[in-house]
Design goal:
Elements (H helix, E strand, L loop, with lengths): L1 H22 L4 H17 L3 H8 L1 H4 L2 H19 L3 H27 L7
Helix pairs in contact: 2-5, 5-6
């Protein structure tokens, strides 16, 4: 059942974002920022954790999950370091994921031949 919940919740999130892209004049970058901010706000109001427990990877993999990860990192760093935690928490919480994306993207550029769009 976990796989089914992850599939339909993740698909629903993607479908809603696609509708948002198709029906509004928002550019993809702004929609991505909106998703990250929504994930952080949902984490702030303590709604994201029960949602993630129900949906599993369907909620933690999209950009909503990244926003929540940033929020959790900032919250923990503020509890530990005070005001300076605002600036360091998001970096510490997301460093592994961002580093992995950069490393795998670099490796993929060696395996496949990148081309510029015309």
């Amino acid at each position: 059942m976990d796989y089914i919940n992850a599939f339909w919740i993740g698909g629903l999130i993607c479908a809603l974002v696609q509708i948002l892209l198709d029906r509004t004049k928002l550019m993809p970058g702004r929609v991505m920022v909106l998703l990250v901010c929504a994930g952080a706000v949902l984490g702030f109001v303590n709604v994201y954790k029960p949602f993630q427990e129900f949906a599993g990877a369907g909620a933690s993999v999209p950009l909503l999950g990244f926003g929540n990860t940033l929020w959790q990192g900032v919250k923990e760093a503020v509890d530990k370091s005070g005001f300076l935690g605002i600036f360091q928490g998001g970096f510490q919480a997301s460093a592994v994921g961002i580093s992995a994306a950069l490393i795998f993207g670099y490796i993929a550029s060696f395996i496949f031949e990148p081309k510029m769009k015309k």
